[in-house]
Amino acid sequence: MGTQNVIALAKAKGARLLHISTISVSGNSFDHDPAFPETVFNETSLYIGQPLENVYVRSKFEAEVAVLRARLEGLEAAVIRVGNLANRRSDAKFQENYSENATLTKLKALVNLGIFPEQMEDYPLEFSPVDETAAAVIRLAQHFDERYSVFHAYNHQRIPFSRFVAALPSAGLECCSVSAQEFMQAVQMPGVEQVRKAFINDIDRGGQLNLQSKIVVHSDFTTWRLSQTGFAWKTIDDAYLTAYTNHFKNIGYWEAGK
Fold first, then answer.
1. N or C: lower Cβ tally within 10 Å for the chain?
2. Is residue 154 part of a domain?
3. Pick the residue with more confidence: 226 or 196?
4. Is residue 32 very low, low, confident or very high in pLDDT (cuts 50, 70, 90)?
5. How confident is the model at residue 196 (pLDDT cuts 50, 70, 90)?
6. Domain tally for the chain?
């Protein structure tokens, strides 16, 4: 795999390796087993019994294993797990392949449908502006310490879904709360395949929407470490959310079928 090649190159050149991974290795977006115990996934965690059937998550997990194994063999290396990368704080611009962002795909599905299940009112959304994430990664690189092997570089200051909904009118959009039953009925209607696809990993075996995960991701250590370097995540405020929703309005992304 590509990670093995990078590890070999780092060993050959005597270079330090900072491997960018993802919080998705925790499996918290794919955990809907009611029998799974409440589990914290922090910077000391790797395999906690999380589901690894998803090809993307499995590949990221195996890449981390390879890097950490190389570290045990003497390579100077660290794994940095990033979160939900979001639009730049500076100008609200985002990646060219924005349609592949899982969180954004769900938000679009709800905006296009015009409704959301009431149980999502307080659902925590994470936005890690890509420019702030890059700054965090650079700080961790500049202050590398061989004692530390894994970091969670994501904005831990989550916001409730209702805050996102409140920002939609600035882009001329609206999304209303309905019961879980009404939402699932709407999702089963013809012509909303995009919505069903966006929430495919959140519908349990009984056909019900299940947004709760037993796997809780923490970043206390990384937040502390970053504070030692003078870095702190900024709050996701109304100005950011307005710029976020208007950016995707301006490029036509919120429109159905786009």
1. N
2. yes
3. 226
4. low
5. confident
6. 1
User: What are the angstrom distances between the C-alpha of 132 and each of 86, 173, 233?
Assistant: 10, 28, 7
Distance CA 100, CA 41 (A): 25
Three-state SS annotation for 162-193: HHHHHHHHHHCCCCEEECHHHHHHHHCCCCCH
Nearest-angstrom CA–CA distance, 21 and 93:
22
152: which strand partners? 81
Q: What range defines the domain where residue 28 resides? A: 2-250
Q: Which residues on neighbouring strands pair with residue 215, listed in sequence order?
A: 39
Nearest CA among 163, 178, 155, 146 for reference residue 231:
155
Residues in the chain: 258
Q: Measured between alpha carbons, how far is 73 from 188 in angstroms, rounded to an integer?
A: 52
pLDDT at 229: 97
Closest of 66, 51, 54 to residue 21, by C-alpha: 66
Instruction: State the alpha helices, DSSP H only, in 118-237.
Output: 130-142, 161-167, 180-187, 193-198, 220-228
Q: 148: closest CA among 16, 2, 14?
A: 16
Round to whole Å and give the CA distance between 24 and 79: 13
Four-residue CA torsion sign, 11, 12, 14, 16: negative
CATH of the domain at 40: 3.40.50.720
CB-based contact 80:20 (threshold 8 Å): yes
